[in-house]
Every structure is written in C-alpha cells, then in structure tokens.
Amino acid sequence: MLGLMQDWPLLCHRIIDHAATYHPERRVISRSVEGPFHTTNYFELRRRALKVAQRLDRDGIKLGDRVATLAWNTWRHLEAWYGIMGIGAIYHTVNPRLFPEQIAWIVNHAEDRVMMTDLTFLPILEKLAGQLKPIERYVVLTDAAHMPATALKNAVPYEEWIAEADGDFAWKDFDERTAAGMCYTSGTTGNPKGVLYSHRSNVLHSLMAAQVDAMDVSSRDVVLPVVPMFHANCWGLALTSPMVGATLVMPGGKLDGASIFELLDTYRVSFTAAVPTVWLMLLAHLEANNAKLPYLKKVVIGGSACPRAMTKTFQDVYGVEVCHAWGMTEMSPLGTLGSLKPEYADLTGEERLDIQVKQGHAPFGVEMKIVDDSDNELPRDGKTFGRLKVRGFAVTRSYFKEDDDILDPQGFFDTGDVCTIDPHGYMQITDRAKDVIKSGGEWISSIDLENLAVGHPKVAEAAVIGISHPKWDERPLLVIVLKKDQTATKDEILGFMQGKVAKWWMPDDVVFVAEIPHTATGKIQKMALREQFKDYVLPTAAAAE
Length: 545
Ligand code: ADP
Fold this sequence. Notes:
The protein is α/β, with parallel strands linked by helices. Helix content is 29%, strand content 23%. The strands form five sheets. The protein has an eight-stranded mixed sheet, sandwiched between helices. A seven-stranded mixed sheet has the order 7-6-5-3-4-8-9, with helices on both faces. The chain has a four-stranded antiparallel sheet with strand order 16-17-18-19. The structure holds adenosine-5'-diphosphate. Residues 185-186, 232, 302-306, 324-329, 333, 359, 415-417, 429, 432, 519, 521, 523 line the site of adenosine-5'-diphosphate. Adenosine-5'-diphosphate is lined by residues 185-186, 232, 302-306, 324-329, 333, 359, 415-417, 429, 432, 519, 521, 523.
C-alpha cells in the first residue's frame, strides 16, 4: 500500500521560490567583478532567474542541455544557476584555475552549448575559442557599459541578454531525478571525471547541510561562501542559504586576506566556509593588522585537512568556532562535519582539539564503512585505518559518459581516502590512499606529520611525501615553507616534532622551499612535489646502502 501524501517533486527552483516568497527582502550582497558592491534580495534574484530561464528557452536550450559557467561567486552567477536549472538544463561549473587545455577538454566532453563567463576569464576563452567546439554563444556576466570588444561567438552582455525577456515565464516541470548540475573532479591522475547532480540529490543535500549538526545555517545568519561555486557545488551553500533564508555575501574574485576581512567586518558575516589556504591568508592579515572578528561565529574548513594550529588560533585568539568538514565532489560534496556530540561537548583545550582535528561524523544520508585491501570491513575503534567507502542520496553512482560501474556489490563508492572511525562515529582522514607513506610494511600518515609541522610558530605550510628508501621502501620527507622573514634549521623543526609522533614516523629529512604547488582547488599537489623530489636521496638512504 502506498502512502497518501502528496508527490511534491524535489526540484531546485522550488528553493528560490521559497526564498522569494518567505524571505523576499533578505539581501544578497556581492563584490562585483567590475569593482563596486552590489545589493539585491531573494525576490529580485528569482525574478531575474526567471528571465535567464526564459532567455535560455528562447535560445533553444532544452531539458538536459549543459550550460557552462566560468565565474566567481556573485548574484549574477546565482541567478544563472537557478535560471538554468529551472528549465531542466544543467549548470556546469568550470574551474578557472584548471590548465586551459583541461578547460577545453571538459567543455568538449560536457558538450556545453552556452558559456556564461565573468569578464576576468575573457582572455582565457579568447585563446581557447577555436577549441571550444560545442559553444554556440558566450554570455558575459556584465552590463553593456563594461562589455569589451570581443570576437567570441555571439557574445552578449548578460544584462542586455536578460533585458530581452519580460519574465512572464514559468519554471518547467520534470522528474526530480533530472540532472541539475555538473562538476568535474580535478583529475589529479587521468582525465577529469564529470559528476552529475540531480534536482533530488541537490535538494536533499541542502536539507542535510542546513542541519544544526551539519552547517547549522538559518535565516538569522549572514553567510559568506568563500568556497567558489565552481568548487564542488559550493559545498551546498548556494542552495542551502536561500532554502533557510540566510543573508548571502558573495565575495566575487577577491579572496585575499584583506578583501575577505573587509566582507566579514562590513557585512557582519556570522558564518563562512572555505579551504585552509584561504584562512591562512586571512589569519596572516588579521595578525599583521591587529584586527579582530567580532561578528563571525563559525567557520567551516575542509577540502584538505584543517591544521590543529588553525583551529586553535580561530578559537582561542578570535573566538570563532571551527567546524572541520570532509567531503568530495562525488558527494555533492558533504561527507562528515565536526560538530561536537554530547560525549565530547564539554571538552576543553588540547582534548577538544584532539576531536576537532578529526574530520567529523556523518549526517543522515551518508553511510560510511572502512575496509581492508580484501574489502573486509574494519572495526570502528579510532585506531584501525582502512579505505573509506560511502553510500547515500547525494553520492555519485557513475561518472558522466562512463559506463563503468564504480560501486561495490553493496552500492558503496570507494572514496580513495584512508581513515579511522572512532566508536562515536568520528572519522579521521589518515591520507589519500595514494599519498600514504609505506614504510617497512606499515603506513605513515602524511597529513598527521603536516599538521604537526605547521604547529611550529615559524612554519607557514608543510607537505610530506614518501621518498624511496633501500631498506624501508619509503620514508617521509618534510617540505616546508617558512613564514615571511623567518629562518629555521632542520634540527629546530624535528626537535619540535620529537615525542609528538611515534619515533618511526619522524621525517628522515627536512627541506625548505619558497613555495609548495597547489591544485586548482587549493590542495597540496603531491604529484608535482613527488616529481620535483624524484631524484632526492635521503641522508638515511645513503647511510643504509
Ligand atoms: P578536487 O578538489 O580534487 O576537485 P574534491 O574537492 O572532490 O576534489 O576532493 C575531495 C578530496 O579532498 C577527498 O577525497 C579528500 O582526500 C580531500 N579532503 C576533503 N576534505 C578534507 C579534509 N577535511 N581533510 C583531509 N582531506 C580532505
């Protein structure tokens, strides 16, 4: 017997309808790409999103067509998302930090028909235009006054383009399992892979993200998503914020410490989220200018491991609660968040930090298990590490245009991460399966060593890679970027780490570099580092031979 409740399809445009009806005046403030701040609200945003939908429809964009966006977080980008989704087309966020050849490959693979772009990216697109075969029209997210001359096919300024629509248009009707959005993983090995979100998965993910033990955002919050819309679905915030009626502050293209501080302070932001590299820049700015964060309550940090020292500084110096989170593009992207369960809620000082360095626990909708190389499930004792597998309503089951079945027989997706899970369900990433250092048949976590090293007051950033060793197979090499105008010796750094990790985990050598390479999403590029140090001979290796 079926239930007798209404069949109310979970469609993303219902989120902006809700925001426009129940939170119409709530503001969406953006740092525009042209420079000045811009303010609108959810009522207006929906009105203009309908024009985007109407205009795309008139251009012949249909259910299932892909529309690329190469853009910073602004009100126009948000309108574009809702307009695209509202006719059953698919927003395809392209990460501008990718190599130009990768951008071309992705656009061709996705067969994007329209490219919506910020002014910032016109030079890249003009260089690539000959290779972007499927693009029929370029919509430049600006007005006529700021539109430069360009030879891009059918290029039109966004404001002119939507002005041609009167907005007398209704969202289209379709199944909630229809694709809504698309995001390619960075593809650190091989070609990038397309992850295809559905309306249903996006709506359920937004409900999940809003929960108090997840992002915990409400209509009382002022939300600053520093995490770009092109990075893993904006961690859900472009949908969750209007869903709960939160004020939105969109940072545009300026993500440096001073610019982010200006937004946090001017607009009294209460909630923000981004990768650790962004917060390194902000903390450096605060320290240099003796600035404070009186309004910010919570910062969600993920995408790569949040160093213990960063959590401590945010909490102890600035009074801002840190929520460590883990996820991946394939998971829409939230997997775990580090809110404190009652078992841990009263902890203080170092004991509290011991829990907060973990990546957190799974909200409803994410199932996790850890397995060994033969796929046997491992105990959740907080000590045993294994490969992390996940299952849920917002987890991918296949990549775009790839027929391979990527799930195991129970329907779990292999994350490629190695972790422990403690008896209270807190997951802690030990490493990417391919980055873990294999020493004498045992595993050493590069992330643990990096976290420890950045706790040294002179260290700005640290990376650990495995270097081949004649006796142990691999041994850790610690690569360090010092803070501005600092000097340090190998012994000073190793002395600091001594006693804080097992003796056999201690790095065999330390090198100081000016810069550590990062991926397009702000992660340390271990592949590039391994390449850079491929001929490096550890002093311990020379001794062992
Ligand atoms: P990319 O940034 O390469 O496009 P994702 O954002 O999907 O791809 O990256 C997901 C991966 O990032 C995870 O599988 C994990 O290895 C890493 N990651 C994400 N959050 C964390 C975290 N809090 N701590 C450690 N690693 C993390």
